[in-house]
Amino acid sequence: MAFFGARAAIHSVLLTLLLIAPLPSGAEQLETPFAEVFSQLAARLVGVVVNISTTQATAAAPAKGTPEAQLPPGSSLDEFFRDFFGEKGAPGGPNPPAPRAASLGSGFIIDPSGIVVTNNHVIANA
């Protein structure tokens, strides 16, 4: 009986060692480090990356603080508001320039004819 107990103990120890032994990973190790591979790829493709910048006119927002009430011409309040806010927006007065929106992004030239691929948000509403 002692024989079976010693045999079971040895099997238990061997099984435990097999279970806790490091298993080989399924991932292959790269021969070349990632940073070097990335650098080589970037150097090869640097000529196809482009900068994309867009500008567009936007609708002019009303000037903040401009009174909405219509005052009788020549009233003391009309004169006060004109002195305080200026002539902007007054009939016949100069209109402020429309603000411009700008965006910036990048893309890749994918064809010798100059076709560029980029994200939609870079050129949306351009």
Written description of the protein model:
By secondary structure, the chain is of the alpha+beta class. The chain is built from 4 helices and 3 strands. It has a domain of 40 residues. 36% of the residues lie in helices and 17% in strands. The chain has a 3-stranded antiparallel sheet with strand order 1-2-3. β2 and β3 form a beta hairpin.
Question: What are the key terms here?
Answer:
126 residues, alpha+beta, single chain, 3 strands, 36% helix
Number of helices: 4
Over the alpha carbons, how many angstroms does the gyration radius reach? 37 Å
Secondary-structure element series? HHEHEEH
Instruction: Compute the separation of the termini in Å.
Output: 88 Å
What sort of overall outline do the alpha carbons produce when their principal axes are compared?
A: elongated
Q: Level of helix content?
A: 25-40%
- Strand proportion: 15-25%
Question: How are the strands of the biggest sheet laid out side by side?
Answer: 1-2-3
Mean pLDDT over the full residue set? 73
Tell me briefly what this model is:
The chain is an alpha+beta fold.
